[in-house]
């Protein structure tokens, strides 16, 4: 019997309480029986909500708790402790606002708080969160790599001993690591040896140890768990099967390629509404003209020197877009810039200019704002077209590799079905803020695909070239 259910839902995107409760209930209706939490991400909100809802569940759900990173409210609590002269032992200060600790006293405190928020109606497992954070800190301190790895293993040994005791006491059912460093990346960053971790657990608790969980990124564009040897010639998934370890695939729909996000889903913009490159160039010329007109009109106002400089500096948005709009690697890259930098930049322009507007100038501003919105919409449609083409080409690659008909379902469902069909994958954890999305994912296990092994994923590596050629 598997340690954890096949599907899990991360609570990191629950949002407001008004939105979160229906979403959790929708997840339960969709058949999800595992919830992944991390106080460092949501200040304990997800666990508190699960505690409130526990009476509504017909069976005891599983909760997968990640502990290690100290951010948000945990950071402020740790800062107060340090200022009071009682810091957590072996605390690692990664950067301002983000610290790290896996000392048994910290684990004990965090696990107690988790159990208090949840109540006693849950089956809890623990993941030590991103232990590679310590290695990155040690490298920045100039510590030799071998010395840093030895020190990390010493800290993990103490953490494992505490978690084994928690298992024996019935507080948790199993424990493991949530890490990107369990698989070699081909860079100079050190990898954490999963074989050494198993040996560590054996030394502490013998063959009946509870170190059973490995949580790693695994998706169509990051297939290393199925392709890269980690112990002898065995991949992580193959070694996990040999050692009866339960592998949890996280980031199943949000890959990172060369440091950039890539969503394994079709964009929400419909293909029928797409536009041409020439149309966008025309829109940008009009946007430049509108921005110049607004700037000239504002310069006729009795502004002081600081105001004039600020307005001149801010009203260069059209020139920036005209020069760089076509340089983004993917739809997701563009959306990140649109909802981040460009949105912030437009907000700054509006907050600066609106107080200066006269009745005569207001139409110029409204035309400018509308031109900006329309330009962004059209650029988004073009990048969406490329994402749709990317999805089409991915399906072609999948059919070629699997030699099996690909069901006509959304790409997100297909991407998850690939993971569920892969030998060695125990659980797939998704992060979703949509009840409709969760309902769609509930049918994934009904999609019939061949069992996938190392040779399939080695061939599926070709999927990366689709992105590297402009999609």
The overall number of domains is: 2
* Percentage beta strand: 5-15%
Instruction: Report strand order across the widest sheet.
Output: 1-2-3-7-8-9-12-15
Distance between the termini: 41 Å
Mass-distribution shape = globular
Low-confidence stretches: none
Number of strands: 15
CATH homologous superfamily identity of the largest domain: NADP-dependent oxidoreductase domain
CATH architecture classification name of the largest domain: Alpha-Beta Barrel
Structural class: alpha/beta
Output the CATH class name of the largest domain.
Alpha Beta
- Give the mean pLDDT: 89
Helix content: 40-55%
| Count of helix runs | 19
CATH topology of the largest domain: TIM Barrel
Largest sheet: 8 strands, parallel, barrel
Radius of gyration: 26 Å
Topology:
Elements: E1 7-10, H1 17-29, E2 34-37, H2 39-42, H3 45-53, E3 62-67, E4 69-70, H4 73-83, E5 92-95, E6 98-100, H5 104-118, E7 123-129, H6 132-140, H7 145-168, E8 175-178, H8 194-205, E9 211-217, H9 224-227, E10 229-231, E11 234-235, H10 236-243, E12 246-250, E13 254-257, E14 260-263, H11 277-299, H12 305-314, H13 317-324, H14 331-353, H15 362-402, H16 411-420, E15 425-430, H17 435-441, H18 454-460, H19 463-468
Parallel strand pairs: 1-2, 1-15, 2-3, 3-7, 7-8, 8-9, 9-12, 12-15
Antiparallel strand pairs: 4-6, 5-6, 10-11, 13-14
């Amino acid at each position: 019997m598997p340690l954890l259910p096949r599907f899990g839902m991360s609570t990191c995107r629950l949002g407001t309480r008004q939105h979160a409760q229906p979403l959790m209930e929708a997840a339960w209706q969709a058949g999800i029986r595992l919830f992944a939490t991390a106080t460092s991400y949501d200040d304990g909100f997800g666990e508190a909500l699960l505690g409130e809802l526990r009476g509504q569940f017909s069976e005891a759900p599983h909760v997968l708790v990640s502990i290690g990173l100290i951010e948000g409210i945990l950071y402020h609590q740790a800062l107060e402790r340090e200022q009071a002269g009682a810091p957590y032992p072996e605390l690692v200060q990664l950067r301002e606002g983000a610290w790290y600790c896996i000392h048994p006293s910290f684990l004990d405190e965090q696990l107690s708080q988790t159990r208090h928020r949840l109540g006693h109606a849950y089956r809890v497992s623990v993941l030590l969160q991103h232990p590679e954070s310590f290695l990155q800190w040690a490298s920045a301190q100039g510590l030799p790599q071998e010395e840093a790895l030895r020190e990390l293993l010493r800290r993990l040994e103490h953490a494992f001993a505490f978690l084994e005791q928690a298992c024996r006491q019935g507080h948790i059912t199993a424990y493991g690591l949530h890490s990107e460093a369990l698989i070699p990346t081909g860079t100079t960053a050190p990898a954490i040896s999963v074989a050494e971790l198993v040996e560590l657990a054996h030394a502490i608790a013998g063959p009946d140890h509870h170190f059973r969980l490995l949580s790693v990124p695994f998706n169509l564009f990051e297939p290393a768990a199925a392709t890269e040897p980690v112990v002898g010639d065995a991949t992580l998934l193959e070694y996990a099967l040999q050692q009866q370890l339960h592998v949890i695939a996280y980031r199943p729909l949000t890959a990172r390629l060369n440091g950039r996000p890539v969503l394994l889903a079709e964009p929400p913009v419909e293909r029928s509404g797409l536009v041409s490159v020439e149309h966008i160039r025309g829109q940008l010329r009009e946007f430049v003209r509108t921005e110049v007109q607004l700037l000239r009109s504002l310069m006729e106002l009795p502004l002081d020197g600081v105001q004039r400089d600020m307005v001149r500096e801010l009203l260069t948005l059209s020139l920036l877009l005209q020069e760089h709009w076509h340089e983004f690697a993917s739809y997701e890259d563009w959306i990140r810039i649109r909802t981040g930098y460009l949105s912030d930049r437009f907000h700054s322009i509006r907050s600066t200019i609106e107080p200066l507007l006269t009745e005569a100038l207001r139409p110029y501003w409204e035309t400018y704002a509308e031109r900006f919105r329309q330009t962004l919409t059209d650029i988004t449609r073009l990048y969406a077209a490329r994402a749709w083409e990317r999805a089409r080409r991915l399906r072609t690659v999948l059919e070629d590799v699997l030699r099996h008909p690909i069901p006509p379902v959304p790409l997100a469902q297909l991407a998850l079905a690939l993971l569920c069909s892969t030998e060695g994958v125990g659980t797939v954890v998704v992060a979703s803020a949509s009840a409709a999305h969760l309902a769609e994912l509930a049918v994934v296990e009904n999609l019939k695909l061949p069992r996938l092994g190392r040779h399939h994923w080695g061939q599926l590596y070709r999927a990366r070239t689709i992105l590297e050629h402009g999609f």
